[in-house]
Amino acid sequence: MSQLIESSTIPGFIRNVVANVHPDSHTFLMHKVKDTWVEITYKQALEKIDAISAWFLRMGVQKGDRLSLIIENGPDYVYYDQALQQIGAVNTSIYPTLSESEIEYILNDSGAKTILVGNPFLLRKVLRVANNCESLIRIIPAFDDFEKFSDKLNLNAGVVGFDQVIQEGLALVDQYKHAIGAAREAILTTDISCLIYTSGTTGIPKGVMLTHHNLTQNVINSLIQIPYIEKTDLFLSFLPLSHVFERTATYHICLSKGCTIAFAQSLELLAKNMAEVKPTVLCCVPRLLERIHDKAIKNGTSAGGVKSKIFLWALEIGKKYRLVKEADKKPGIILKNQHKIAEKLVFSKIKEKTGGRLKFMVSGGGALPRNIGEFFGDLGIVILEGFGLTETSPVMAVTEYHRVIYGTVGRIIPGIEVAIQNVETQHIYTIQTHDNFKEDLESEEGEIIVRGHCVMKGYWNKPEETATVIDKDGWFHTGDIGRFYRGNLQITDRLKNMLVNAYGKNIYPTPVENTYLKSPKIEQIFLVGDKREYITAIIVPSRETMQETFGLKDAFFEQPDVFIEDKELVDWIGQDLRKLSHELAKFERIKAFKVKRNPFSMDDGEITPTMKAKRKVIEKKYAADIDEMYLQETEAD
């Protein structure tokens, strides 16, 4: 294992790698230009980083200034971020999927002076709100021919191309070299590295202030927990760097260890890119793993006959083999030989589609259904599940490679305390740390609270909101409900999501929804039932599965009716609901449902950029349809 490089600031990571791990000629970044993967060395990246820093200093950027980005993942993100980080400015990333009003709000709330814009579509959004943002003095498009979008506009902010910034900066580097170094040395661990605006399922976004100490300690202690990442590893990055999970688990981890980052072209081309670059580590979200699972099951069983029998036999052998290994026993000779056959005939074929070199995948951003984790375990693909929030930098817990407990998010990382607190009485049931880990620990269920190096500095310009989540003893209240199971943290649901039915029964939607999501017919599900007599749901079907089953054309999904009323299609969904309902308590079962023609979307304001449902928005938007389900019940069990 390669040496763990420590740093107290984000810009210190890359400098330490070049000084102690790799020569500056080593490949740092990869991205695809047309049909070719282009490699970028540390030297090439640092030249551009220093050039941009010099240009910023020439333009009067000072320590603490907020500089914004709205750009897809790629080398330009890294150049811009590292350039502002090393002069003490604050990265204020904006999700590319946000609306114009949300972009305007973040630019004004943060007081951002500059924004890097990734493509024409995003530039048009920024230009429409630019004159409403008093602090914004500079817009930097990171693509050619941007003038045709901005030249005829009467803008308060100046517009200059990113290529021009770099070229002018290269001529300034010698002049500002000492100033850049002095600015880098002057950064304090308590200084803010970035503002990340929480997408929030309710209310307006809040800017989470994360310091250099928050972020570097989170990286260092996560790597202590997972000491299997090497300087030779290659990460494929596709989750947005505007989100704290990808920024820490891929970008900052790679900065600290000297790993190479390859940027995927898009989610649609992810499978193709995996086969091309052959990553050794991939950070992903549960929904991606669910899709891989569904596709693998479909491909393995759809042909029927011998092929299907071999596939199902292999999965059964994989499960037996996994359970023996998890029990810390040695598989017998028969099982060992059966597993070799299953590996050759089935598992290796699936692994080849990931590039064939994956050591493990890290799942975050939401709860991974237990059956999905077990499926990958049966294939011999390790999934490490992590847990945290933007406010916790983000990692609080992550699965240990040698101790995977499916349905949990792993052991608490070093240096922090995590407690389970009674929601009503505030009594703390247990406080756990990395050091007092016990494999047989099981606790009561309650709110998960945390204190230590991962907890944010606070919400930007919102001291009252900060005080509501960080109590007088320094505990940050996550709003998540969970417990400890076999020493590992287990998440039940969000406190705000909890439904209390008319009979006083508490129902956490996530585990119920995950049960129904086992159906390959279902893409999304939204549970309703607070203060109601029974549970209902809005269900989004798997478009691909529905089209294949019923021979539907794309025009079917373009019809104006929000909900599908066709009895045959509704009954088709109901069949799986009835089967899966038997895994749940009676009061958790769906009694009525509506089938939504198209998925909940960010464009319609129904879900957050991290794919979490905005409960209040959805319940208000479909209030009449929800009420109808309680007037005209469709039995599902």
TrEMBL record:
GO molecular function: long-chain fatty acid-CoA ligase activity
Name of the protein in question: Long-chain acyl-CoA synthetase
SUPFAM superfamilies: Acetyl-CoA synthetase-like
Name of one Pfam family that matches: AMP-binding
Protein keywords: ATP-binding, Ligase, Nucleotide-binding
Species of provenance: Mucilaginibacter lappiensis
All copies of domain AMP-dependent synthetase/ligase, residue ranges: 19-460
E.C. no: 6.2.1.3
InterPro entries linked: AMP-binding_CS, AMP-dep_synth/lig_dom, ANL_N_sf
Organism domain of life: Bacteria
